[in-house]
Design brief:
The complex is a heterodimer. Chain A is mostly beta strands. Helix content of chain A is 0%, strand content 56%. In chain A, the strands form two sheets. In chain A, strands 2, 4, 5, 9, 10 and 11 form a six-stranded mixed β-sheet that branches. Classes of the chains: A mainly beta, B mainly beta.
Amino acid sequence: GQQVMQIPQYQHVQEGEDFTTYCNSSTTLSNIQWYKQRPGGHPVFLIQLVKSGEVKKQKRLTFQFGEAKKNSSLHITATQTTDVGTYFCAANTGNQFYFGTGTSLTVIP
Amino acid sequence: GAVVSQHPSWVICKSGTSVKIECRSLDFQATTMFWYRQFPKQSLMLMATSNEGSKATYEQGVEKDKFLINHASLTLSTLTVTSAHPEDSSFYICSARWTGNEKLFFGSGTQLSVL
């Protein structure tokens, strides 16, 4: 299946600091999605990016799709304790969705 | 809206027995359902994709005869772990979508422990 890598695997930040996770695919993607999974919970859809170079914002979250449509990033400005969880990118290859390795975010109050 | 119900939430079984996990879309018709397996603090590994009324498409390395998937209706898919062994112990989670909507909606997952 599709290989989708994310870095870093873990990130601890002080509340108020920024956070970024990067997602990389070996192949060109038709689109990419981001999900958040809270501890003990299930993944919840955040956003989908479709166009090359696309940038979308949701309050403190900024999502970017690379020009070559092989990578993506999620940036959180001024993290809050409610941002705790694991963030996954997911590559949509048509009818399959392959999830990245995930970045687990811990926010220290 | 877009609720996916999965049960049981957890199950403990003896080695050699079979376990069935159900995934239901409560308020939409799920044209496609996906089954994932997740190990502690790891990613979701796609096991199979099932479209209503047709055979599931399994990912490489996933045994069809061991993980039986049935998507008999637009609101129900089942995963049966046959002759379960301790190495099958894991968190299994389903997701669903409908044609034209790219979002995946996830069930709450099933923690399987095989003794």
